[in-house]
Amino acid sequence: MTERVLRYCSGLLCCLGLAVLTVALIAMTPPVPAKRDPTTLPVSSKLASRLKHHVEYLASPDLKGRQPGTAGNRAAAEYIKERFREAGLTPLPSLGGFGQPVTPELGDNIIGVREATTSLASSPWLLLGAHYDHLGGNFLGADDNAAAVAILLETADALPSLAHHHVVFVTFNTEEPPYIRTPLMGSQHFVDHLPPEIGAPGRIQAALIMDLMGGVHWEPLRDVIFAAGAEKAPNLYRRVKDAIAQFQPEGECGPPPARARDGEPLSWTPAPSSTPSPCHLSVLPVGMHVIEEIPLVGQVSFSDYDAFRNAGVPFLFLSAGRTPRYHQTSDLPDTLHYERMAVTVRWLQQLLGVVDQDTRPYEFVPDGLEFADEVASFRPLVAKAAQWNSRIPNTSMLSFWKVQRDDEWLRQLDPSVTSADAIKRLERISLRMQCLVADFPACFLL
User: Fold this and answer.
1) H or E, element range at 274
2) Helix/strand/coil percentages in the chain, nearest 5
3) How far apart are CA 261 and CA 191, in angstroms?
4) Most buried of 3, 7, 44, 90 (most Cβ within 10 A)?
């Protein structure tokens, strides 16, 4: 009996010792500096302040989430129309105004044009688009998608007339469920009912679509946006990389360039400012397959780019990615990174300027892939996620172990050799990273 008691006490002490050791190790674990609280990010430039003003109106409680068919959705549409007027955009004559009704009950797409200086009927079109609707009620949708609409409005205000392309700015309605991936989706309705001034999808040189452009949750993504889809149009992809290489992201950002009305070339370079602001942006090319591929489901489209892709229009999808506030009531104006949004406005001007140099239609290659560039985009992010001190917030131990295995695989991968297995593995890595950054449950299962 005494021997059994001693063995029991010995085992109990051992367990208590392990518990104490575990508590001590947890107490010694360093904090997670990689978590980014967006409410602490400064808004110091005038452009960032204007962007915030747009978002605060569009995502205000008064608009009640901009659900299609509601007074709040109509108020958002009227706000966008007024900003288009102030920017000097013109409506398409065939529409008789800035609105293109999706249905009388649901409301309109809002469309404004800046004509090319050549102003020929045969001039091709560039499209910049973002949806302005959201879920309604207490879901106010600051990042989804007031942020992208704000960027579009400021780009429209600053962009000069291009030499060779008309630019059409479109804020789409009815992107959110239950309309997404249906004929009632605003972008799908636009493509299915192209205004006669545009005529056919082949007249659109490229469609640049934005969604979720303001959020930030993980420090390594603070100054990052992702550029997907251009890999399906080799010449557009080349121009995206040109715009990345030519843009000057470091230093102080001056005010955006004044609009040109007399055919002056589009240009912008950083200049000293009396109100210094951060000026840094990393645009990372990735393929659509790493964004859309869902295990056991296949490819699932997530935004307005899909209507253009299905019509064979070269496209670029820009996004900063989901955060834990995605489709939550916590998606509020004070959770956005307005200075990054401001630099994005300037980068879009750079991109549109270099694309304007191409007058021949871009070839659309549905199975286009730029695997080596994708690997280059993911490697540094996965490496940071695989380090304890810079891991993605709320990463479980099992997910952390899997990210470390992902990091090891990426380090050893030869990106010049593309295989089906490597593509699938990169898709799984991308999905795991998206899952962790958005703080979805059970990311370790991926």
Assistant:
1) none
2) 45, 15, 40
3) 29
4) 44
Name the CA dihedral angle for 356, 357, 361, 366, rounded to a multiple of 10 degrees. Answer: -80
Tell me if 328 sits within 8 A of 54, measured CB to CB. no
Residue partners of 1: CB distance under 8 A and separation at least 6: none
Q: How far apart are CA 240 and CA 226, in angstroms?
A: 12
CB 339 within 8 A of CB 38: no
The H-or-E segment that residue 293 falls in is: strand 293-294
Q: Please tell me the distance from the alpha carbon of residue 209 to that of residue 405, in angstroms, as a whole number.
A: 34
Where is average pLDDT lowest: 50-59, 94-103, 249-258? 249-258
Buried b / exposed e over 28-53, threshold 16 CB at 10 Å, is eeeebebebebeebebbbebbebbbe
Q: 178: cis peptide before it, omega within 30°?
A: yes
Angle of the 397-412 helix axis to the 371-385 helix axis, nearest 10: 140
Radius of gyration of the chain (CA): 24
Measured CA to CA in angstroms, residue 305 lies from 83, 119, 226, 291, 363 at distances of: 24, 27, 14, 13, 17
What distance in Å separates the CA atoms of residue 18 and residue 331, rounded to the nearest whole number? 42
Q: Is-contact 282 224, C-beta < 8 A?
A: yes
- Between CA 151 and CA 37 the distance in angstroms is 21
pLDDT in tens, 31-63: 544 787 888 888 999 999 999 999 999 999 999
Strands 107-114, 166-172: pairing kind: antiparallel
Q: Are 44 and 113 in contact (CB under 8 A)?
A: no
The number of CA neighbours under 13 Å toward the Cβ of 115 is 12
Residue 188 in tokens? 């799908």
State which amino acid sits at residue 85: R
What order of strands is seen across the sheet that includes strand 224-228? 99-103, 107-114, 166-172, 125-131, 204-210, 315-319, 224-228, 282-286
Average confidence (pLDDT) over 387-399: 95
H-assigned helices in 260-321: 288-292, 305-310
Helix (H) or strand (E) holding 126: strand 125-131
**Selection from 47, 37, 39, 54 nearest residue 340 by Cα:** 47
Model confidence, pTM: 0.88
CA distance 400 to 398: 5
- CA dihedral sign of residues 112, 308, 361, 358: positive
